[in-house]
């Protein structure tokens, strides 16, 4: 058995791992790497068109030509998707056609993928299969079949799964991305029973989200973020102010908290921006949007303009949730800060960022410049009302103790970000190069 760390091992983004089982192969994830365009389709007016060639040229999609070279492409039997984030599914529209294989993911992941395909007007020939969290999909191989379990885990979007591929030599567990949150605000808690069971069966290899393996922490539950949202909305003097909040559009649990406390303030809640519409409507489709009757959504220019005019007249009784927490050019926040939309901030209006600026130079610069423009109007900015969706070092220690895998492969970051995971594994008795493996993009590991 061979494992190809196709991409996502030199950078945060464009995740893809392939497993070669001899007659058959499977691919885990097929993501985008676009640090400059965190939310791909935020340009509300001018929609950028992307082609496979263009995206390959700028290194935005996994370099899966490696699989052609290694004779793997032709025997790929499934494209398995762990969750709905773009760095895990965003390259599917451009690369999936290369594989005669079905695409498999949980209902929310698939609903988001279908929205992206619709928005981009891209047709892919692959069959698309939904698998409920905590159930299995049977991958049909040449001579035998393989069971893949979609084990429910917690993260910053709905229906995230750790995927357990059962092979004759043991389980390959793809755990990319996750945190261990026993009180998620929305969705199921981690399925520890399933993890214990596969540990008993024997985990051959664990590909694991090691992004924050260098942070000595247990990542807090989403209930802590909910309490932070409560504080910033209910304990701040904002009775006479406009309140605008921006968060990750795919973070439906966070959006729920914002809506819940917005309602407590007796404010009418508006959602503005295309990516919000995309993720929220996907959550409605799968029956996981508890606030669907409490919001008005606007995404097209005319809707956005008319809602903002209404909000201007009813500042004290409105709460706007919008895109642009990274200062993305063309997002609602960005355009508000440039005076390009029909709403003017006044002194003491509240702008809440329920997010963390992604530490890529372009994001940091965009956000800083946007904040500067906002500050000129005298608004109050509340930044970092957020809890991460990624496990810290002590969560990783618990996961490894629970699973006792034969091999550990850190994933989801640069060498610098992944190295502390190797350190941790060594601390726990794994030998570097023998049982824990610091891999790079485009490499192969024999198991
Ligand atoms: Zn993610």
Number of strands: 19
Total DSSP helices: 14
Strand order of the largest sheet: 6-5-4-3-2-1-19
Radius of gyration, rounded?
A: 22 Å
Strand content: 15-25%
Largest sheet: 7 strands, mixed
Can you tell me about this structure?
This protein has 447 residues and is of the alpha/beta class. It is 31% helix and 22% strand. The chain contains 14 helices and 19 strands. It has helices spanning 52-57, 65-69, 86-89, 92-95, 107-120, 192-201, 222-234, 252-264, 274-285, 301-313, 332-337, 361-375, 393-403, 415-427, and strands spanning 2-7, 16-20, 25-28, 76-80, 103-105, 128-130, 135-140, 145-153, 160-167, 170-175, 203-209, 243-247, 268-272, 295-298, 318-322, 350-354, 380-382, 407-411, 443-446. The protein has a seven-stranded mixed sheet with strand order 6-5-4-3-2-1-19. β8 and β9 form a beta hairpin. α13 (393-403) crosses α14 (415-427). The radius of gyration is 22 Å and the shape is globular. The N and C termini lie close together (5 Å).
């Amino acid at each position: 058995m061979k494992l190809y760390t196709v991409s996502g091992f030199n950078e945060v983004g464009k995740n893809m791992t392939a497993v070669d089982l001899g007659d058959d192969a499977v691919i885990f994830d097929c993501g985008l790497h676009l640090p400059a365009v965190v939310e791909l389709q935020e340009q509300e007016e001018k929609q950028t068109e992307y082609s496979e060639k263009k995206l390959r040229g700028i290194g935005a999609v996994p370099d899966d030509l490696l699989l052609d070279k290694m004779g793997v492409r032709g025997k790929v039997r499934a494209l398995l998707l762990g969750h709905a984030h773009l760095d895990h599914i965003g390259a599917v529209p451009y690369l999936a056609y290369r594989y005669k294989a079905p695409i498999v993911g949980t209902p929310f992941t698939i609903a988001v993928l279908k929205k992206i395909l619709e928005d981009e007007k891209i047709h892919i020939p692959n069959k698309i299969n939904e698998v409920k969290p905590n159930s299995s999909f049977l991958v049909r191989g040449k001579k035998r079949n393989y069971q893949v379990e979609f084990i429910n885990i917690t993260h910053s979007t709905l229906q995230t799964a750790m995927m357990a591929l059962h092979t004759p030599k043991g389980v390959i567990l793809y755990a990319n991305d996750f945190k261990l949150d026993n009180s998620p605000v929305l969705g199921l808690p981690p399925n520890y029973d399933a993890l214990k069971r596969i540990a008993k069966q024997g985990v051959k290899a664990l590909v694991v989200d090691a992004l924050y393996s260098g942070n000595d922490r247990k990542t807090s539950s989403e209930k802590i973020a909910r309490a932070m949202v409560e504080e910033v909305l209910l304990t701040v003097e904002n009775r006479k102010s406009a309140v605008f909040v921006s968060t990750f559009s795919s973070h439906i649990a966070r959006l729920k908290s914002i809506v819940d406390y917005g309602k407590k303030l007796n404010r009418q809640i508006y959602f503005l921006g295309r990516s919000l519409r995309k993720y929220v409507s996907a959550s409605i489709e799968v029956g996981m949007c508890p606030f669907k009757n409490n919001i008005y959504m606007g995404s097209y220019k005319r809707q956005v303009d008319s809602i903002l005019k209404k909000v201007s007249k009813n500042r004290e009784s409105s709460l706007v949730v919008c895109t642009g927490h990274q200062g993305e050019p063309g997002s609602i926040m960005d355009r508000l800060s440039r005076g390009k939309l029909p709403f003017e901030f006044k002194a003491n209006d509240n702008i809440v960022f329920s997010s963390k600026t992604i530490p890529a130079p372009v994001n940091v610069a965009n956000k800083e410049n946007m904040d500067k423009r906002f500050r000129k109007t005298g608004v109050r900015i509340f930044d970092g009302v957020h809890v991460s969706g990624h496990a810290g070092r002590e969560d990783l220690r618990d996961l490894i103790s629970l699973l006792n895998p034969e091999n550990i492969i850190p994933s989801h970051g640069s060498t610098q970000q992944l190295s502390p995971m190797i350190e941790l594994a060594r601390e726990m008795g794994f030998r570097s190069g023998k049982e824990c493996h610091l891999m790079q993009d485009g490499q192969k590991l024999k198991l």
